[in-house]
Specification:
The protein is an alpha+beta fold. It is built from nine helices and 14 strands. The protein folds into three domains: 165 residues, 3-Layer(bba) Sandwich (FAD/NAD(P)-binding domain), CATH 3.50.50.60; 74 residues; 35 residues. Helix 3 runs antiparallel to helix 4. It is globular, with a radius of gyration of 23 Å. The structure holds flavin-adenine dinucleotide (FAD). The site of flavin-adenine dinucleotide has 18 residues, from strand 6 and helix 3.
């Protein structure tokens, strides 16, 4: 890679076969390595390990059991120092365990993972180390990092591909001309940083609210100090059931509610505006909501029917 001496912009990259590719704008899609933004331009990595202690995963594929109906969801199960995923696909299943290497040895992880696969193993378990966090700027000079080269969050809420999509959409929206106006770069960086911090906070919430007492990992997670942005949300929720929505939020109130309620964290009080509603109105509103959901569910094919229709090219 060659930089322009006058401003450090990337002038060209050299491929393995010796070809040189010049460009005005470079998109770094080199994964964890962050070849252009991190290695060449030296943009600092902000480490979020103090809030997200998991730093590795073991992944292993398994064979589907003949005759089993395909589950329409990914199952996530807490383990002693992390969590296990099971992702059913039509031809096989993906399994893995995300864990904190400070709390569990590789042998201990495999002993927790392997008895709980969705079927017989098809591959050897593969260890994937990672570091949670992000590059301090996703865009520096004439280089924009998209995907893992911009940062990584563990796949507890499967957000990486969504973050790639929003990164591409944002770049399209703020596509530069050759002047590379600093205001455009700042805006891109600000939006990217805020969006990723919001996702980070939502993932931290899963750890912070846990009530397990059977391992040091879960106790440490419960006792950690969370980022101010998240603490503020938790405080407003417990004060009166308020959902704070900042700019660039990927997760909606329904997702936050699922986590608060799932862990039994309920508000101490409620919005006084609720007192303006009669109990009968409230009951009617909830009944309508229940009825609408039931109607929709009744008219929806189940997962196996949907997949079969997909095979026939008839799925809506
Ligand atoms: C265990 C696990 C589970 C995941 N689950 C989900 C999920 O459920 N949902 C979700 O949204 N995301 C998930 N992800 C994340 C998702 O897979 C990644 O975010 C996505 O694949 C990253 O794409 P990328 O293009 O940024 O990086 P990569 O896919 O890593 O691509 C980087 C590419 O750059 C190439 N490269 C690097 N250096 C060079 C070089 N010097 N020259 C040429 N090429 C180079 C590499 O060969 C590679 O092909 C998961 C990730 C892991 C590890």
């Amino acid at each position: 890679m060659e930089q322009r001496p006058e401003d450090g912009f990337i002038r060209a990259v050299t491929l393995d076969d010796g070809r040189e590719v010049e460009g005005d704008l470079f998109v770094d899609c080199s994964g964890f390595r962050s070849l252009l933004l991190g290695e060449a331009l030296g943009v600092r990595f902000e480490d979020w390990g103090r809030w997200l202690p998991c730093d590795a995963a073991f992944a292993v594929q398994s064979r589907n059991r003949p005759g089993d109906a395909p589950a329409p969801f990914t199952r996530v199960t807490a383990r002693s120092a992390g969590w296990q995923w099971g992702i059913p696909l039509r031809h096989r299943a993906g399994n893995g365990l995300v864990f904190s290497s400070a709390h569990l040895s590789d042998d201990q992880v495999l002993a927790e993972l392997m008895p709980h696969l969705l079927g017989d193993p098809l591959t050897e378990p593969r260890r994937i180390p990672f570091r949670p966090g992000r590059r301090a700027q996703a865009w520096s000079r004439n280089c924009v990092a998209i995907g893992l080269s911009a940062g990584f969050l563990e796949p507890l809420e499967s957000t990486s591909i969504a973050l790639i999509e929003t990164g591409v959409a944002r770049l399209k929206q703020l596509f530069p001309d050759r002047r590379f106006a600093p205001a455009v770069i700042d805006e891109y960086n600000d939006q990217s940083a805020r969006e990723m911090e919001r996702v980070r906070d939502f993932i931290i919430l899963h750890y912070k609210l846990n009530r397990r007492t059977d391992s040091a990992f879960w106790r440490d997670c419960r006792e950690m100090t969370v980022p101010d942005t998240l603490q503020r949300k938790i405080d407003l929720w417990t004060a009166r059931g308020e959902f704070v929505r900042y700019r660039w939020e990927m997760f909606h109130p329904a997702s936050w509610l699922a986590i608060y309620d799932g862990f039994g964290v309920h508000p101490d009080d409620y919005d006084p505006a609720v007192d303006a509603m009669t109990p009968a109105d409230l009951e009617r509103g909830l009944r309508d909501m229940r009825d609408n959901i039931a109607r929709l569910v009744a008219s929806t094919p189940d997962h196996a029917q949907y997949l079969a229709a997909l095979d026939r090219g008839q799925a809506a």
